[in-house]
Specification:
The protein has helices at residues 9-31, 34-41, 45-52, 55-62, 80-94, 97-105, 109-130, 137-157, 161-165, 168-184. It contains ten helices and no strands. With 186 residues, it is an all-alpha fold. Helix content is 73%, strand content 0%.
Length: 186
């Protein structure tokens, strides 16, 4: 029986990712630096660049974000859309990782892939339970994702004044019916 020995770079990569997660969580994407992450990992900054190329790619590799989607089985079906909007707003406002990942995903393929993975592995399974026609779940999940990502981009990245000025419940009142239609409408 042959076993594959770990590559010598594996512990270094793991140390970089652990340090990056801690640093991005503590300082946010904008203030975290490659130099600080390297210092936290106890390596030269050139090693971070060698393995990850730049800060965006490192962030995409290190970013983990759990949507923590609620169980909607106890919520009236007509309220699923607004409940999801309120939930997304709460998650985005309590953890800046998603917004930083969204910013990076616009220009970075690895961050884009991470964002796609979040929606495919976390949102799609929840929608499978809510959809009246399970075969439509991927399409409906895509529509929900497009609306929610557009909202996040408008509210947290572009900071459109009318959208940022609205309280979360008002945003849910406006966008919730659209999400509801995507979930259960014809």
């Amino acid at each position: 029986m042959s076993t594959v020995a770990p590559r010598r770079s594996d512990p270094t990569r793991a140390a970089i990712l652990a340090a990056a997660r801690d640093r991005f969580a503590a300082d946010g994407y904008e203030r975290a630096t490659i130099r600080a992450i390297a210092a936290d990992a106890g390596i030269d900054p050139a090693m971070v660049m060698r393995y990850y190329g730049n800060k965006e790619k490192l962030f995409a590799a290190a970013a983990t974000f759990d949507l923590q989607l609620p169980d909607l089985t106890g919520v009236a079906e007509a309220e699923h859309g607004p409940a999801l909007v309120r939930h997304f707003l709460h998650r985005w406002e309590s953890d800046g990782t998603f917004v930083a990942l969204l910013r990076a995903a616009v220009t970075n393929e690895a961050a884009r892939d991470r964002m796609l993975d979040i929606f495919a592995t976390q949102l799609a399974p929840v929608l499978m339970k809510l959809c009246p026609v399970p075969a439509e779940a991927p399409t409906r999940a895509g529509l929900v994702a497009s609306q929610m990502l557009g909202l996040a981009l408008s509210r947290y990245v572009l900071r459109l004044p009318p959208i940022t000025a609205m309280p979360g419940d008002e945003v849910a009142d406006w966008i919730g019916p659209t999400i509801q239609r995507y979930l259960t409408g014809r």
